[in-house]
Amino acid sequence: MDIFTLANGPFMVNSYLVVNGKKAVIIDPGAGIKPFLVKIESEKLELEAIIATHGHIDHIDGVNAVKKKFHVPFYVNDMDTDLIQTVRMQARMFGVPDPGDISSDRNLPSSGEIEIAGMKLGLMHTPGHSKGSVSILIDDVLFSGDTLFNYSIGRTDLPGGSYEELINSIRSKILILPDSTRVLSGHGPETTVGREKKMNPFLS
Fold first, then answer.
1. pTM of the complete model beyond 0.85
2. Where would I find the H helices in the chain?
3. Structural domain boundaries in the chain
4. Tell me: the pLDDT tens digits for 7-58?
5. 8: which of 30, 117, 197, 202 fits an S-S bond (Cβ 3.0–4.6 Å)?
6. Does the pLDDT of residue 204 top 90, yes or no?
7. pLDDT band (50, 70, 90) for residue 158
8. Percent of the chain at pLDDT above 70?
9. How far from each other are the two terminal CA atoms of the chain, in whole angstroms?
């Protein structure tokens, strides 16, 4: 498995291209996702899906560009459907370009496993930043969305946010993983579960 990171768009969201052989999946496509589209096409990769860890605009405003180019399904948890339906309002609220209407094709389950691009994705419901936030574990790498950051946590002042839920999600779902688990967040540098256990001021 190879993981490529692209910090992009007005929110500098971390979008991820996860490649398994010639098969691939995009996680959290931002508005500046074009370099990944070029890479997929030039390297003749087989993109199988788009996945969003949650429904805030910065994590989905590149969805339509990917779907237009590769015609693949978009997965997001159904509990964030309302967020996705307000994406154009979110654009106005934050003063960023309107991405147009975005709709999900398939529900991203809040637990269990699914297989995409020949990889098993372990799914964990980690609400707090949004109601439908789902963290995704592939091998020893956790894509945490905006739940857990390097020495920080996701904001909880947006609709659907809850500080208590967020802290509980991190403690009960993420911190029980092996300390060596890599954590690839929605923004900022990567970290590990062990580092956040010891050093994250919000979790001490």
1. yes
2. 34-42, 57-60, 63-70, 81-85, 87-94, 163-169, 193-199
3. 2-199
4. 999 999 999 999 999 999 999 999 999 999 999 999 999 999 999 999 999 9
5. 30
6. no
7. confident
8. 100
9. 33
Q: For residue 185, give the amino acid letter.
A: S
DSSP state of 196: H
Phi and psi at 71, nearest 5°, equal 55, 50
CA dihedral 21, 25, 31, 37 (to 10 degrees): 40
Distances from the Cα of 44 to the Cα of 36, 54, 73, 162, angstroms? 12, 28, 18, 42
The SS3 call for residue 97 is: coil
Q: How far apart are CA 162 and CA 144, in angstroms?
A: 16
pLDDT at 124 exceeding the cut of 90: yes
42 has which bridge partners? Answer: none
Question: In CATH, what class is 2-199?
Answer: alpha beta
Q: Which one, of 99, 125, 123, lies nearest residue 112 by Cα?
A: 123
Cα–Cα distance list, 160 to 18, 66, 90, 188 (Å): 28, 27, 14, 23
